[in-house]
Amino acid sequence: xxxxxxxxxxxxxxxxxxxxxxxxxxxxxxxxxxxxxxxxxxxxxxxxxxxxxxxxxxxxxxxxxxxxxxxxxxxxxxxxxxxxxxxxxxxxxxxxxxxxxxxxxxxxxxxxxxxxxxxxxxxxxxxxxxxxxxxxxxxxxxxxxxxxxxxxxxxxxxxxxxxxxxxxxxxxxxxxxxxxxxxxxxxxxxxxxxxxxxxxxxxxxxxxxxxxxxxxxxxxxxxxxxxxxxxxxxxxxxxxxxxxxxxxxxxxxxxxxxxxxxxxxxxxxxxxxxxxxxxxxxxxxxxxxxxxxxxxxxxxxxxxxxxxxxxxxxxxxxxxxxxxxxxxxxxxxxxxxxxxxxxxxxxxxxxxxxxxxxxxxxxxxxxxxxxxxxxxxxxxxxxxxxxxxxxxxxxxxxxxxxxxxxxxxxxxxxxxxxxxxxxxxxxxxxxxxxxxxx
Length: 438
What we know:
Layout: H1 3-34, H2 40-43, E1 44-47, H3 49-53, E2 64-65, E3 73-79, E4 87-90, E5 93-95, H4 99-111, E6 117-120, E7 126-130, E8 137-138, E9 145-150, E10 153-158, E11 161-166, E12 171-181, E13 186-198, E14 203-208, H5 210-220, E15 226-233, E16 245-251, H6 269-274, H7 278-287, H8 296-322, H9 329-351, H10 357-378, H11 386-405, H12 413-435
Parallel strand pairs: 5-16
Antiparallel strand pairs: 1-10, 2-3, 3-4, 3-9, 5-13, 6-7, 8-11, 9-10, 11-12, 12-13, 13-14, 15-16
Keywords: Membrane, Transmembrane, Transmembrane helix
Transmembrane segments: 331-351, 363-383, 389-407, 419-436
């Protein structure tokens, strides 16, 4: 491929990237605007009692009483829309306090010096039992509803607040708070889950409900703000790892307050430990039959494929934490999604042009596979939905075919470009599969 061709490809690629960013920013901006906190009038929409009596799904829906003798009944789930048929996740925490107080004390429970639950061993050694390092902050996320029924009728509730502990483009604990009850008997229903940002789905993937429920509990154990904590049977389990037992927390309002959440850097100790053995390792690799045809093109393709997923993750988290774009996460997503969606296959095709077809396939697939593992290791994820695993395997096969085809006009034009066509088609199909929500 001559220099002019490369320059034309680079210019076309840059134009395509800008077009994709602009195309994504349009609808994403609308989504961000629609997700803004609603006015109080829109926050609680009344459902006519007559409609309920005629069978608006309510008679067939399970309700629970937040207070034993209370008149308010809660539907212990959330929903994508104001409809019981679009159920998403179960409510798993309930505070017997209003949402504003809960939001403030969640921050205070981790900022206060008493937030470490300490005890002593038989040898009088101090042990920290609750060593969580949380920082709850206002968050952005898709709108979800829940439903309550009172003596005056039923109504759908929008989130009063959304909070998270972690990073939008990494992993986080995400809370949706729904303010309910009355002035004399306030309560806040919470849907808590642990999730991570999936660049191929352009949304968060929920990994655990129980883990987030325990995280909220641990934030209050041993603090001055905890009046009482127990679990009650709401029988709303069966979704992911939810068991139907909901955490009920009584709070004591003492003060206001929150520490900085930090990410630990990767350790390089292993590299230092084996550095003195490098000469021996190099000689062993040089004598290996498997690496007789190993070139810089093999190394370049492997390292690039292995590094891109984690590089995008780190760059997006850095922009989120260190720039004003933290208030507009959709803009960051629009900037980096083209790199993931189109940068990976384009780079695989360009770097694969100098390799044999079988070499390109193996090196690209193994490199990207390692890249996914490094990314999930950074996020400290140990389990994934089966749909995500199948999707990633499809991407590995697709990028291997693209690298096997390369982008050069070789003597074996039909076979080489046949690989590219099949691989690119498979890659695009996998993208549409993930963006459609599996």
